[in-house]
Design goal:
This protein is of the alpha+beta class. Strands 1, 4, 5, 6 and 7 form a five-stranded mixed sheet that branches. Strands 3-2-8 form a three-stranded antiparallel sheet, with no helix packed on it. α1 runs antiparallel to α2. The longest helix has 14 residues. The chain is globular.
Length: 180
C-alpha cells in the first residue's frame, strides 16, 4: 500500500509536537495536505515530500554521497515511490539504492530526526519548475563490515565523515541527540 496523506499528516503532527520550534517551516506542507494535494507525487510542483537517511557507522561517522545532479555532498535520500509503504521505509530504500548497503542497517528511532523544507531549483532538462521538498530525515546505524556500491546514475562518490561535519546545525544536533 502506498504512503497515504494520513501517514504523512500523522508523522508530521508527531514531529511538530516533538519539535514545536519547527512548526512555521512545516506550514507549506500542512497547507498542501489540507488542500488535498498528493504530496507523495514528484509531479506536485507546489511542493512534495521526500525521504532521507543519515547512516552512522561504528566510528560515529555519517555517510555522505556526491549527488551528480546537484553537484553537492549530501546524505542519501530522494523522492517517494509508489511501492513505498511509509516514510521510514522510503528513506531506507533510498539509502540502499544509492549506496548498496543492505546488511546490518537498523533505524535508531521510528520517527524522523528532522523534517527539512527547502527550495529546489528549476530543472529544464526534466521540465520541472522550481518547487520545494519536505525531506523527512531518519537516522540509521550500520554495524560491522559493509561495502558501498554506488548508484552511478545519481551518485559519483561517497565519504564517511564525522557527524560534526553535517552542515545543517539542526540536523547535526538532532542526530547526536538520537545517538545518545
Amino acid at each position: 500500500m502506498p504512503i497515504t496523506a494520513t501517514h504523512i499528516r500523522t508523522t508530521l503532527t508527531g514531529y511538530a509536537d516533538a519539535h514545536p520550534e519547527d512548526k512555521h517551516t512545516l506550514a507549506p506542507l500542512s497547507e498542501l495536505l489540507d488542500q488535498g494535494a498528493d504530496v507523495t507525487s514528484r509531479k506536485e510542483f507546489r511542493g512534495h515530500a521526500t525521504a532521507g537517511a543519515v547512516l552512522v557507522n561504528d566510528q560515529r561517522q555519517a555517510l555522505f554521497i556526491h549527488h551528480v545532479a546537484l553537484d553537492k555532498w549530501l546524505t542519501p535520500g530522494g523522492h517517494l515511490e509508489p511501492e513505498d509503504t511509509n516514510l521510514m521505509h522510503a528513506a531506507l530504500r533510498e539509502l540502499v539504492e544509492e549506496t548498496g548497503i543492505t546488511l546490518s542497517v537498523a533505524p535508531v528511532q521510528p520517527t524522523p530526526v528532522h523534517v527539512d523544507v527547502h527550495p529546489i531549483p528549476a530543472n529544464d532538462s526534466k521540465d520541472e519548475p522550481a518547487h520545494w521538498h519536505a525531506d523527512f530525515r531518519y537516522v540509521f546505524q550500520v554495524t560491522g563490515e559493509h561495502s558501498v556500491t554506488l548508484q552511478e546514475e545519481e551518485v559519483s562518490g561517497y565519504a564517511w565523515r564525522g557527524i560534526d561535519t553535517i552542515a545543517d546545525e539542526t540536523l547535526r544536533s538532532r542526530v547526536l541527540a538520537a545517538l545518545r
